[in-house]
Amino acid sequence: MTISIIGAGLGGLALARVLHLNGIDAVVYEREASRGARGQGGMLDVHSGTGQRALREAGLIDRFHAIARREGQDLRLLEPDGTLLLQEDTPDDAPADRPEVDRADLRDLLLDALPGHAVRWGHALEHAEDGLLRFADGSSASYGLLVGADGADSRVRPLLTDARPAHTGQNVVELGIPDVDRTRPDLAAMVGRGNYWVLGDGQSLSAQRNGDGRVRVYLGFRTAEDWFGTSGIPFDDPAAARARLIELFAGWDPRFTALIAACDDTVLPRPITTLPVGLTWPSRPDVTLLGDAAHLMPPVGQGANMALLDGALLGLALAAHPDDLPAAVKEYEREMFERAGAAGRQSARVQEILMAPDAGRRMLAFFQPG
């Protein structure tokens, strides 16, 4: 069988790696021109029961632990007036239940574990039908099984369902401070080694220490879908955009607006969209989905873990049923639908908390139930 994977993200690469370990060839088609064509985002917390399970199945768990940051599990939770609600510092001997890893480093780990010919760069899928793929560069390829691992705007998903991502009512602006320990040691100490959350009434500020010394800052707003166009934030003028964002946090502790003021000229608007929780589709023997293409969730820690495990478990199902493709796909989808549905419900609950009037206290109760 010819297995074609659309998208060289974490889930698609995990699938290709598990298939490779089981002696099954697959081709990964990626629209980007090369592995370094664009940035891959910030840190991921890779959970022991999902993402790390996938890496164990892929034979990469030791190499993962060599690049993971155990101290990235640290957490500080505050209210807008500066009240510290929760501080969790990770002991040196603590279990690595959710260590942080740079997304680019994790992707490189997976890429390096594949044969050089496994990924075909510069192949943007235009159309798929009746066993044939057509790409934007005019080339084509046949497939026996097509796996959509191509994210929120999947070109493969319409072959299985009419579902489309919908706006959640939250918009996020990403900023960042490079080389924070040297340039702003005061802010580096405030943020700490891991995640720093400040939650207010419909707004949030989170900061995350990255392995390269950068602190990524995310400003969240409970707003309408068209808010980026109506907010008056001049995204093409980074200095003016930062000034406008600081105005939106008037009344918050000055330490938090100082964090915004210290950011560089990276100002990226990110609307938050999701697929319906519990999305399913009638199984087809020749097409399936994984990761965000199958179950796009709010960015609260589940998505990448689900994608990695999707890829690993689909690979194992195909290896277990090499002569019965429909059975392999059905086995994978049955488990994935149940698992992703539960993760989607939990993610939606966290998203609801983040946008609540008493978000800080509710998040504290989430972390410390009872």
UniProtKB/TrEMBL annotation:
Biological-process GO terms, alphabetical: response to antibiotic
Role this protein plays: An FAD-requiring monooxygenase active on some tetracycline antibiotic derivatives, which leads to their inactivation. Hydroxylates carbon 11a of tetracycline and some analogs.
The Swiss-Prot or TrEMBL record describes its family as follows: Belongs to the aromatic-ring hydroxylase family. TetX subfamily.
Question: By what name is this protein known?
Answer: Flavin-dependent monooxygenase
Q: Which organism is it from?
A: Streptomyces echinatus
Positions of FAD binding: D45, R103, D292
Please list the residues that bind NADPH. R38
Question: Domain of life, per the record?
Answer: Bacteria
Report which reactions are catalysed by this protein: a tetracycline + NADPH + O2 + H(+) = an 11a-hydroxytetracycline + NADP(+) + H2O
